[in-house]
Amino acid sequence: MKILVMNAGSSSQKSCLYDLSGNSSGNGKEQLSEQPPQPLWQAEIDWTHQSGVAELKVKTQQQSLKEEIPFESRSPVMAYMLETLWSGPTQVIAAATEISGVGHRVVHGGQQYQDSVKITPEVKQTIADLATLAPVHNPVNLEGIEAIEAILGDVPQVAVFDTAFHARMPEAAAVYPVPYEWLKQGIRRYGFHGTSHRYCAQRTAQLLDRPLQDLRIVTCHLGNGCSLAAIQAGQSIDTTMGFTPLDGLMMGSRSGSIDPGILLYLMRQEGYTVEKLESVLNKGSGLLGVSGVSNDMRSVMEAIEAGNVQAKLAVEIYIHRLKQCIGSMIASLGGLDVLVFTAGVGENAPQIRAGACEAFAYLGLQLDLERNAQSPRDQLISSPDSTIPVLIIHTQEDWTIAWDCWNLLRE
Ligand code: ADP
Fold this sequence. Notes:
Layout: E1 2-8, E2 12-19, E3 41-50, E4 53-60, E5 64-70, H1 74-83, H2 90-96, E6 99-106, E7 117-118, H3 121-129, H4 137-152, E8 157-161, H5 171-174, H6 180-184, H7 194-208, E9 216-222, E10 226-232, E11 235-239, H8 260-270, H9 274-283, H10 286-291, H11 297-305, H12 309-333, E12 338-342, H13 343-348, H14 350-358, H15 369-374, E13 379-380, E14 390-392, H16 397-409
Parallel strand pairs: 1-6, 6-8, 9-12, 12-14
Antiparallel strand pairs: 1-2, 2-3, 3-4, 4-5, 7-8, 9-10, 10-11, 13-14
Helix pairs in contact: 1-4, 11-12, 12-14
The structure holds adenosine-5'-diphosphate.
Adenosine-5'-diphosphate binds at residues 223-225, 252, 296-298, 343-345, 348-349.
């Protein structure tokens, strides 16, 4: 089965084509059990390349190309990107003509979706309605679904929601301590990065060769956006992101949790508007806001080497909050069987992992500092006598989307 994956973000559109032939062993709904094959075709549009000009990169196993494309609306650029499926190597063209399903990352599934679903007109309407909760992302996701309808006609499509993995969290974790009526307006903790947390949990069980059912896992997704999940028997029972992806950990340019009283103060005393607050908290806070250098951990680390005091403080806060939140996830789980780091910072920054793990030495958690320094992918970085294994896992969101799509469409 050939599956196309569409992963649309606010600033980029990533797509890839997988051949899942040979995965059809066994019956019923299967757990992710294969290491991802190399995609036959990968494409990425960077909408922020230059004002009004997108950059398209396409990579196949045989060739790669890069092109600048002026644009007024996104749909023609997406159509152009998809056309490269039919102008590439013969192997890709052959696979493109056999696409049996398209899996889309959709950011918000609200309370309506606890799992991935086949896209119907009703599902599209719900995704559109949920744009009130995800105004930047859901409309872009819908654009991707409609672009596929226009190009591939009635090929089955599947929505894989970032929120779905957290949708069964216990009420005590999901409901905010505010007037109960707010809950009826949809104000509750939804959580995000669900596809990554779910993949990491399944991959953890595979790597440790233990049943997922028996494990209490804390997964640390540390990318530009950062969140933790507390996973018990394969289910998310708590997470750090909330009603929006602004909650929880300190991130690249997002604040994470702050006292809501600060917002009231700024509105009252400084006349901050909603737009200004939204912009500062999303784009001018986190590592960037404190360091004044960058939202990129690598640049902040370089600035520390050069003696930048604010950069040093930024990383200290980042680690402090990471430790605090890991501690709260452990409390929700009532213990910890394995700690997992993933995404750009989680997979590549030994200092951050070491800083966070230090706090759990009292539990007998011990890193192998040499292995940690090497950032080995999909391997243990804890010492052999650590009471709690620590893993780095390379997150595979696109592969998980392809897998869900395959699982739903073969039924
Ligand atoms: P996104 O959340 O956009 O998918 P990624 O998971 O790719 O982002 O993470 C991006 C972040 O990873 C970058 O902003 C950068 O701070 C961090 N990063 C990538 N490589 C390294 C590295 N070698 N050391 C430290 N941080 C890194």
